[in-house]
Every structure is written in C-alpha cells, then in structure tokens.
Amino acid sequence: MAPFHVPFPSELRNGLWHTTHPLRFDLIRISGAIVANPKLPESERWKTTQGAAYYPFVRTLNAISLFDFTDFEPDKYSNEYPLSTWWTFVPCRRDWDSSIWIEIDRALIEASFVPARQIIAMWNERRAYRHTVMPIVEAASTEPIPITAFRRVLCWERSPGAFREIRF
Q: What angle do CA 21, 78, 3 make, to 5 degrees?
C-alpha cells in the first residue's frame, strides 16, 4: 500500500497515458511527437543517479514509458505490488508543481505498443532486476508517438490541486 492515501484521479481511469513536466511538453509540441530518450540532462531524468545499470527498464528498451490505467484499482494494486511507486507520479511528481498527462489513442500506436504484461515478461526473461518497472501498469511504445495520436492533454497543478484540459 502507498505510504499515505493517494486518491486516484477519475480523469486518468481506463486510459493510456504518458506524463511529463510542462517544459518538456513544450518540447513535445515543438517536435510534434513524444520520443524515447529526448535530449535532456541526466540530472533531469527519472532514476539516473546510480547510472545506466539502474535506469528504468523501459528506457533500456529505447522506448517511451506509458501508464496503462485500464481497470486500475489503486488499493488492490498497491497491496499486490508494494514496491511499485505509481503514487510518485499520480497526479503529480512530488518534486514538481505541475504535471502534464497526455492520453494516447491506443489504436493509433498499435504497431509500436508493448502491453504492460509483455514489459514485465521481458523484464523477467532478461533478469533485468536492477532496472525499475511498474508491473501491470507500465506499458511502452517502441516508436515516437505523434501528436495526432493524442486523445487529450491534461495539466494537474498543485495549486489549485486539480486537472484542467489544455490545447495541444
């Protein structure tokens, strides 16, 4: 269970999402797509302080990390996967004032989509246990995700503590 109660936002239920910082979203808008391993300093990336041997598993695949919240039940999930820290990102990373959530149209990335169960199977097959993964909810895309595959974009801001839809 999460170390504190984190209400799961209804806005994210049953969607396929990519989350990012607002400044990084500006780069996505400019380039026209979400890409794997964008040009960012390592210090601004998730789980990089211990070096490449500990990067998140999806990053080692040169893929884009996605949250698949289809049928997600936060309490059940937290009990079954107590080391998974989904709540670190939902609704906003603790070290950010706001987060962008991009809902992806699954049908439009079907050819590059790697389902969450396949990600965890690959992680186990490769014995990539140093690399973090969020079982059952972390999916991936092996190709850039164009803006045309976005269903909607939400911004969660710590103040007022709510989502708002933004144009993209």
A: 75
Q: What average pLDDT does the segment 63-89 reach?
A: 93
Residue type, 116: A
Q: What is the pTM of this model?
A: 0.91
Q: Looking at this protein, which amino acid is placed at residue 68?
A: D
Q: What is the mean pLDDT of residues 110-130?
A: 97
Yes or no: say if 144 and 66 are a contact pair by the CB < 8 Å rule.
Answer: no
pLDDT computed for residue 1 by the predictor? 46
Domains with residue ranges and CATH for the chain: 15-159 (3.20.170.20)
Q: To which H or E segment does residue 150 belong?
A: strand 150-157
Can you tell me which residue has the tokens 């933004």?
166
Other C-beta atoms lying within 10 Å of the C-beta of residue 70: 15
Q: What is the 3-state secondary structure (H, E, C) of 58-116?
A: HHHCCCEEEEECCCCCHHHHHHHCCCCCHHHCCCCCCCCCEEEEEEECHHHHCCCEECH
* CA within 13 Å, CB half, 64: 24
* Calpha distance 49→151 (Å, rounded): 33
Q: How many CB atoms lie within 10 A of CB 21?
A: 18
| Cβ proximity of 58 and 2 under 8 Å | no
